[in-house]
Design goal:
heterodimer, A: 809 residues, alpha+beta, Aldehyde Oxidoreductase, domain 3, Aldehyde Oxidoreductase, domain 4, seven-stranded mixed beta sheet, five-stranded mixed beta sheet, 22 helices, globular, B: 163 residues, Ubiquitin-like (UB roll), DNA polymerase, domain 1, 5 helices, 14% strand
Chain lengths: 809, 163
């Protein structure tokens, strides 16, 4: 199949009956099972946090700072307290003694500055939207009404919104200690020699614009107490981490705090956080003894859900005349915003090891400076650090190809790790266990019709067609399956990266799986059921997956960083192995055979070479009855496992994008998009395809549409969905997707993770395509998002003779 | 306070409401119709879409008093006798949802779209659902689902017509 395919054709080949061959040749793993989760979601029976209504429940509304930087000089809540339905009004002063500081779990360096971060500002505000007071009232309308009656006086202080300006000597200080949070460096090989001896050096500065994650479900919190213990429902990705952190922050003992993440409407990293509102709702319920609920409006969320990206990347590459890459240097500024939140400073570090991409080189040098500004803090957003790194290396490899006059695919071929070279330790010190970049690229080129499109491009250039064709390449890899605990420890992260699972076999042979992962759209209930069905030989329908409630799932590290299957799924497999081993003991006893003579296939224990057998359901019932078990056998088949990986996993793939750019209007249209991803073995191809599609869409959104914009005073100008352009169905193309399968060698499932792949891969593919279309005009970069105006301006600048970027390449 | 009478998913409700109460808050907070979620405050996202007298509206931009005397169908009222609506089945079959938060609005908007165009092209579906945002799927599977739902709905109608 070498011709270009219609979008979606490959995907449509997935059928219910498909068995694509998973680990162990199982019946369920590899099958395009429709999801168990859907039944409640398509009928409106889902349990979002905001659905919860409890007797006597009160509603919280927050008053938020209208200034980016100011001293709070006076707060008067007396009038607000008299408004109808108002039960209480609190300012930061009211919580000062008990609210603690919002945690940062990733102090990346010894001398990092971690400023105090009160959940409600007491004396100074440092970004627009910071909570300064709240009303607690009998309904949400009355709570919002009374906010207007709170009087607060501010003494304005200077804002600083630009990272580079913030590092200037005379810049306004966000915190007393200054605006530099940390500097973190990493170096390998002789970078000076690599650059000195190289025939070609290319340097670029790329701006990773600030993004607003925009999960469709706004955040919501419900807190309640019986006077002793507390329950917090929250739209969070991390109920387990949240419980520990809230216990440490509020002083509520961990065993007196239950955290529940019910149905959660997307996260993309934005709900990987310990938020001010979660802490404050707990404190309010502790004060008032009544259940309280807070649900954010979207415009409140755009201001106060942590933002993503916002880095300034200066990257240079050195290469020989034949294209062999010698070294890469990166100097990064990362905008922390006003405070360091849960993993804010760690985000650029997650990218630090990925700037060499899939390429071999002699030397690498990385410096990152974390900078405070008077803006909402940044933190994890889909890919967290790795999209930024991948963008920079994939963009500059295309720039290098242009400099050398070489096809970007050919340049990559000359530099990438060959499939025969795995396992391969990169210049960044990571050991990539497996991969086949050649295979994925060949497949992608064939599906894309690369040569034909290049011919058309040449023709359009020749004709000086006002609509030019651009072709963008992204051959990415990513570091997934966060994470080996030892590695996290060596990077100063505050916790481990293991995952937990329990498997409980009920008397009737039905199975409950308790997982420490916390899905919010990923389909774990379905995928984990497939894994267990194969491992224990029980029907898919007989498995229930429990998650997201610390009272039923007491232990876990939750869901982010494409870790759930790679770490959590493996824990499920390991727990199933222990269940099987126990059940075998019982089966052997009942069949009066030695356990060594008993084999297990598809739910049945059989004495080798005989017709004697017992089903796992029979063993479950016999274990429940416990009338006739082996001497000393504990009457349960249940088992737990906690899996801590030895290494990350490294999905990879080749994404190709063709765009048509109207050089008269600057408008860009994606003409075709091909993605060939290698995520290792696949548990459910339908879910994998969905993750890839959604990831590509978010990456395209960064490339073409989205940007959080502040004015010079630090006001966010994109507070609503009318101002912040989330792409709709009309804005996005169809995608042609396919996969190659190179199993991971570092886990028994052979899986690599898929949640972030599309986002990591697609942004550079699209921007490379836009720049490729404009290269004959002398354009070497278009800052993201590549809006018609930006494209048009880039063309204008390139056409101006005095432009430093000018000249045909 | 104004008194209104609305029928929601086949049940009649007589309610006293503040004039400023949004229809979506009436549905969610007063009537317990939490199947209809809220995703924004500028009527951009479409998560709260319901059918009002047979046509789709964003229930965050309708006042409850404006719905007086109207017949409203939410996602909770779509299935009949425990059988899912073809559009619900199509979304499930085509994996047109991940977190599912936009799904109720997306399904209601899709059903209305078919009023005007019972067999929409891919482009027509994309244009027609421009007012409903999804952050998970990238929309391809939603487009497939709507076209599949359309086919199944027209088959069902043919079945009714010939029986």
């Amino acid at each position: 199949m070498t011709e270009q395919l219609d979008a979606g054709v490959v995907a449509r080949q997935i059928k219910e009956s498909d068995v694509l061959g998973g680990p162990g040749g199982g019946r369920e793993v590899g099958r395009a099972r429709r999801r168990k989760e859907d039944a409640r979601l398509v009928t409106g029976r889902s349990q979002w946090t905001d659905n919860i209504q409890l007797p006597g429940m009160l509603y919280v509304a927050f008053l938020r700072s209208p200034m980016a930087h100011a001293r709070i000089t006076r707060v008067d809540t007396s009038v607000a307290r008299t408004q109808p339905g108002v039960v209480a009004v609190f300012s930061g002063q009211d919580f000062a003694a008990e609210q603690g500081s919002l945690p940062c779990a990733w102090p990346v360096s010894e001398d990092i500055v971690i400023p105090d971060h009160p959940p409600m500002a007491v004396s100074e505000v440092r970004y627009v939207g910071e909570a300064v007071a709240c009303v607690v009232a009998t309904d949400r309308y009355k709570a919002a009404d009374a906010l207007d009656a709170i009087e607060i006086d501010y003494e304005p202080l200077d804002a600083v919104t630009d990272m580079t300006a913030a590092l200037d000597e005379g810049s306004p200080k966000v915190h007393e200690a200054g605006n530099k949070a940390f500097t973190w460096t990493f170096a390998q090989g002789d970078i000076e020699a690599a650059f000195r001896d190289a025939a070609v050096r290319v340097e670029r500065t790329f701006v990773q614009q600030r993004l607003i994650p925009s999960a469709m479900e706004p955040r919501a919190v419900v807190a309640q107490t019986d006077g002793d213990a507390f329950t917090l429902h929250s739209a969070t990705q991390i109920p387990h981490i949240l419980r520990v952190m809230l216990a440490l922050t509020t002083g509520i003992p961990e065993h007196k705090l239950r955290v529940v993440a019910p149905d959660v409407g997307g996260g993309f990293g934005s709900k990987l956080q310990v938020t001010a509102e979660e802490v404050l709702c707990l404190l309010i319920t502790r004060r008032l003894g009544k259940p309280v609920k807070w649900t954010e409006s979207r415009s409140e969320g755009n201001l106060t859900v942590h933002h993503g990206r916002d880095q300034l990347q200066r990257i240079s590459v050195a290469a020989d005349a034949d294209g062999r890459i010698r070294g890469v240097k990166v100097d990064l500024l990362a905008d922390m915003g006003a405070y360091l939140m849960l993993v804010t400073p760690g985000v650029p570090l997650l990218g630090a090891f990925m700037y060499s991409g899939i390429y071999k080189m002699d030397a690498y040098d990385f410096t990152c400076t974390g900078v405070f500004t008077t803006k909402m803090p940044t933190d994890a957003y889909r890919g967290a650090g790795r999209p930024e790194a991948t963008f920079a290396i994939e963009r500059i490899v295309d720039e290098l190809a242009a400099e050398l006059g070489m096809d970007p695919i050919e340049l990559r071929r000359r530099n990438w790790i060959q499939h025969t070279e795995f396992p391969y330790t990169t210049v960044c010190g990571l050991t990539y266990d497996s991969g086949n970049y050649e295979a994925a690229t060949e497949r992608a080129l064939a599906l894309f019709g690369y040569d034909k499109l290049r011919a058309e491009q040449a023709d359009r250039r020749e004709r000086e067609d006002p609509v030019q064709l651009g072709i963008g390449v992204s051959t990415y890899t990513e570091m997934c399956g966060l994470a080996p605990s030892r590695v996290l420890g060596s990077l100063s992260y505050g916790a481990g990266g293991w995952e937990h699972a329990s498997v409980r076999v009920l008397p009737t042979g039905k199975v409950e799986v308790v997982t420490g992962t916390s899905p919010h759209g990923q389909g774990h209930e379905t995928a984990w059921s497939q894994i267990v069905a194969d491992a224990l030989g029980v029907p898919f329908e007989d498995v229930a997956v429990l998650h997201g409630d610390t009272s039923s799932s007491h232990k876990g590290m939750d869901t982010y960083g494409s870790r759930s299957l790679v770490v959590g799924g493996v824990a499920v497999v390991q727990a199933c192995e222990k269940v099987k081993e126990k059940a075998k003991q019982v089966a052997a006893h009942l069949m009066e055979a030695s356990p060594d003579d008993v084999e297990f296939t598809r739910g049945e224990f059989r004495v080798r070479g005989t017709g004697t057998s017992r089903t796992i359901q029979e063993i479950a019932l016999a274990t429940f009855a416990a009338h006739d078990l082996p001497d000393g056998f504990e009457p349960r088949l249940d088992a737990d496992a906690t899996f801590d990986p030895d290494n990350f996993s490294f999905p990879h793939g080749t994404h190709l994008c063709a765009v048509e750019v109207d050089t008269e209007t600057g408008a860009t249209r994606i003409r075709s998009y091909v993605a060939v991803d290698d995520v290792g073995n696949v548990v459910n191809p339908l879910i994998v395809e969905g993750q890839v599609h959604g990831g590509i869409a978010q990456g395209i959104a960064q490339a073409l549409f989205e940007e959080a914009v502040h004015d010079a005073d630090g006001n966010l100008l994109t507070t609503t969905m009318a101002d912040y352009l989330l792409p709709s169905a009309a804005d996005l193309p169809a995608y042609t997707t396919d996969r190659t399968e190179t199993p991971a060698t570092t886990n028994p499932l052979g899986v690599k993770g898929v949640g972030e792949a599309g986002t990591i891969a697609s942004t550079p593919a699209v921007v490379n395509a836009v720049v490729d279309a404009l290269r004959p005009y002398g354009v070497r970069d278009v800052p993201m998002p590549c809006t018609p105006e930006r494209v048009w301006r880039a063309l204008g600048q390139a056409r101006t003779p005095q432009s430093t970027d000018g000249g045909l390449s | 306070m104004p008194r209104i009478s609305v029928t929601v998913d086949g049940i009649r409700y007589d309610e006293e409401v503040e004039p400023r109460l949004l229809l979506v808050h009436l549905l969610r907070d007063r009537l317990g119709k939490t199947g209809t979620p809220i995703g924004c405050d500028t009527s951009n996202c479409g998560a709260c879409t319901v059918l009002l007298d047979g046509r789709s509206v964003k229930s965050c931009s309708v006042l409850a008093v404006q719905a007086d005397g109207c017949d409203i169908v939410t996602i909770e009222g779509l299935s009949t006798g425990g059988t899912w609506h073809p559009m619900q089945r199509a979304f499930h079959e085509e994996h047109a949802l991940q977190c599912g938060y936009c799904t109720p609005g997306m399904i209601m908007a899709a059903i209305d779209l078919l009023h005007d165009d019972p067999d929409p092209s891919e482009e027509a579906v994309r244009e027609g659902l421009e007012g409903n945002l999804c952050r998970c799927t990238g929309y391809c599977t939603i487009v497939r689902a709507v076209r599949r739902g359309a086919r199944e709905m027209s088959q069902e109608q043919e079945g009714v017509a010939t029986s």
